[in-house]
Automatic annotation (TrEMBL):
The keyword Lyase applies. InterPro entries: Aminotransferase_I/II_large, Class-II_PLP-Dep_Aminotrans, PyrdxlP-dep_Trfase, PyrdxlP-dep_Trfase_small. Pfam families: Aminotran_1_2 (PF00155). Residues 5-100 form the Aminotransferase class I/classII large domain. It comes from Escherichia coli. This is Putative cystathionine beta-lyase. Keywords: Lyase, Pyridoxal phosphate. It comes from the Bacteria. GO terms for molecular function: lyase activity; pyridoxal phosphate binding.
């Protein structure tokens, strides 16, 4: 494959991953706001609507979710409360990361609900 064809296929792949990410997060984690990549293969994910301390959330992503993702504050104070999502990976890897992210958020939301209303057994 020559370089031009490779670059074109890479751009198509990244554009497809951007659309997939936007759709997945919209359907599964609407609390997160995604800033689509512009001219690169990283998107910024705003986590402020979670209502959960970002540092605790980030640690849970790493330890509980096994998600390898960068915290935005690494890139400056403007990135606080954001995740930096790499979209130049395989669709399978992207899906697994997003699914794990969703699982951690689901657990956090369940814990918040249990704290608010108490934990009752389901029958």
């Amino acid at each position: 494959m020559n370089v031009k064809k490779w670059l074109k296929s890479l751009k198509v792949h990244i554009a497809s991953n951007i659309q997939f990410t936007l759709q997945y997060l919209n359907e599964n984690i609407p609390e997160l706001i995604v800033w689509p990549a512009e001219g690169c293969y990283f998107s910024w994910v705003d986590c402020s609507a979670l209502g959960y301390p970002f540092d605790k959330f980030y640690r849970r992503l790493i330890n509980e979710g096994r998600v390898g993702i960068m915290a935005g504050h690494v890139y400056g104070t403007e990135g606080e409360g954001y995740l930096r999502l790499n979209l130049a990976c395989s669709r399978e890897k992207l899906y697994m990361g997003l699914a794990r992210l969703a699982s951690v958020i689901k657990n956090i939301n369940q814990e918040k609900e249990n704290e608010q209303y108490g934990s009752y057994p389901s029958y």
